[in-house]
């Protein structure tokens, strides 16, 4: 078996987390681990697919794809991390089919088994959200109050009782004996002051003579022309600076990198704003990989314009090496995304989807008949190329 579910100890894999290690020819077919999506299938009489977003009924007949955590090459193969929201729904010693696909259309199937000794929390995960793109491993949720052991109550510390004061000494019995005199005088009498004749007389203070201060006459000087010009210049600069501070400032456009792209998607942003950000990157022709992730997020949230752009990345008629992050076109994926945008009313995707059907680049039945329908819809919406295709 070239795929196994592993744990490397509590420090790297806390309770409930594990990693899929894939070796052999399958691991060599995928060039970019960070662009891999996976699906977990219970292959019984009816194939059921794991959808961790619904913890009460996680197995469904509809195919569900999601990104693994921290995809990387490690130990001579692919290493895909799984969190508690996924592993909780896997039965012990039961084989599952793992389906992998890359953005360039490469797909592969593997089989793995959930080991019985896999450490995982007993509580059912809630609120699992599919990661928009690879990210760090998630920790298992904190245990419930019933799982937390009660800490022992410390014994009360007895209060300190002060020791009783010793009793006062008993008075001496009456005696006719005379107490002995002390050897020194504990309080000697102060020495008498010296006679007044011995002290010299203190001199009487003499008043200082009064001197009237001279009047201070301020000198009046007219400002020079240079000084007046400087004053007007300073006042002008102060006024101009205040006016500039009151003017509305244009919004600062973010500087996109792949790290900031992934950070933005982890926060589940507004799909319409995500589509607008991806459009700005597309106009400047920057960060094709980031464009792809932003368009894919917005398309999965129902944005027709994003689905059209994904179809453009895959479509053989619009694919270009310098305008698409994919190494080669993929007509099947192009039809998938153009169909989604066409059903939402996008005229360009109606035309592109109709041409894919007309040229037999899809596996759909009645392709030519469906092509005429979609081309007519695009022509009715005012699409010039669709009108020309119907005329020919």
Automatic annotation (TrEMBL):
Biased composition regions of type Pro residues, renumbered to the chain: 131-144, 151-172, 183-209
TM stretches of this protein: 229-247
Location of region: Disordered: 122-209
Pfam families cross-referenced by the UniProt entry: Sel1
Family matches, as InterPro entries: Sel1-like, TPR-like_helical_dom_sf
Highest rank taxon of the organism: Bacteria
Protein name, entry field: Sel1 repeat family protein
Phylogenetic placement of the source organism: Bacteria, Pseudomonadati, Pseudomonadota, Betaproteobacteria, Burkholderiales
């Amino acid at each position: 078996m070239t795929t196994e579910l592993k744990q490397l100890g509590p420090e790297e894999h806390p309770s409930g987390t594990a990693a899929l290690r894939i070796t052999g020819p399958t691991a060599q077919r995928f060039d970019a681990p960070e662009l891999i999506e996976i699906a977990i299938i219970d292959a019984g009489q009816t194939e059921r697919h794991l959808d961790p977003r619904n913890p009460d009924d996680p197995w469904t007949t509809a195919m569900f794809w999601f990104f693994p955590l921290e995809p990387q090459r490690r130990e001579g193969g692919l290493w895909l991390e799984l969190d508690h929201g996924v592993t909780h729904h896997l039965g012990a010693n039961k084989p599952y089919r793992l389906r992998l696909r890359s953005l360039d259309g490469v797909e592969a199937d593997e089989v793995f088994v959930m080991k019985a000794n896999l450490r995982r929390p007993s509580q059912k995960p809630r609120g699992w959200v599919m990661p928009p793109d690879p990210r760090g491993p998630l920790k298992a949720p904190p245990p419930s109050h019933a799982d937390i052991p009660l800490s022992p109550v410390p014994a009360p510390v007895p209060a300190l009782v002060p020791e009783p004061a010793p009793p006062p000494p008993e008075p001496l019995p009456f005696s006719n004996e005379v107490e002995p005199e002390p050897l020194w005088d504990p309080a000697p009498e102060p020495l008498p002051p010296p006679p007044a004749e011995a002290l010299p007389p203190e001199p009487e203070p003499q008043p200082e003579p009064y001197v009237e201060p001279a009047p201070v006459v301020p000198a009046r000087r007219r400002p020079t022309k240079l000084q007046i010009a400087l004053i007007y210049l300073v006042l002008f600069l102060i006024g101009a600076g205040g006016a500039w501070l009151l003017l509305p400032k244009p919004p600062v456009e973010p500087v996109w990198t792949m790290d900031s792209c992934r950070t933005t998607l982890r926060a589940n942003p507004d799909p319409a704003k995500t589509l607008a950000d991806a459009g700005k990157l597309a106009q400047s022709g920057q960060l094709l990989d980031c464009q792809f992730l932003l368009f894919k997020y917005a398309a999965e949230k129902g944005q027709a314009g994003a689905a059209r752009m994904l179809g453009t990345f895959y479509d053989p008629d619009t694919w270009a090496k310098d305008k698409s992050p994919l190494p080669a076109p993929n007509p099947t994926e192009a039809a998938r995304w153009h169909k989604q945008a066409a059903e939402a009313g996008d005229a360009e995707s109606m035309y592109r989807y109709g041409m894919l059907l007309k040229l037999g680049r899809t596996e759909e039945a009645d392709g030519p008949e469906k092509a005429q329908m979609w081309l007519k819809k695009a022509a009715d919406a005012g699409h010039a190329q669709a009108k020309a295709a119907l005329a020919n």
